[in-house]
Amino acid sequence: MPKRGGPENDEQVTGEGPRRRPTINDIARLAGVSKKTVSRVINASPYVQKETRERIEAVIAEHGYAPDPQARGLAFRRSFLIGLVYDNPNPQYVVNMQLGLLDGMRGSGFELVVHPCDRGADSFLDDLRGFIERQRLFGVVLTPSVSEDDRVAALMQELGCAYVRVASVSLDAPEHMIETRDRLGGRAAAEHLADLGHRNIALINRSPELVAAGYGPAQRALDGFTEATRT
Exposed, middle or buried: residue 141 (CB in 10 Å: 0-12, 13-18, 19+)? Predict the structure, then answer.
């Protein structure tokens, strides 16, 4: 029999019996507030008094509560998933991109899902559409060379999926663009070596292979490096 007249799982949540994952209802009961108020705190709503917010956050921290992404998706009619779409032959680039996204998403309540693809495949757009629809993505990050394909941006608009394109030149409205400025980076690298007094400068890269694969930033970085060495 429960000890405090609440649900049978009271003692499990409060540590007096076998532990289970706490729910938003548990947090609301333990904090003495409504489920809606807990939801507002989770979603960083400004319409919660400071004292109430701090009490709820303390209960959340004490019991290790974490919102269920699927449940939140049903409640808000969207998922809390961000997709990373890439067709990049450089594994270190992909790892660095994932780490950067995860760092930026920390504490936001969003999760990252990745989708490697082959932009040259006949089924490329159909596969991408299926990925977005199955996951019910909140938004996607498109990296080169996928980001340089205007068909992909058109697909995102058709599906009503938020998107950001990472590219070395501006290809879209500012809210959809992150410019990497690879040409300027290549030029800066060459100029730095020249400033150090070096005169015989060589560039070892995979640009021909990457350009052949449709990876424009590699060519732009090479162009910038070459421009600097000619001046």
Answer: buried
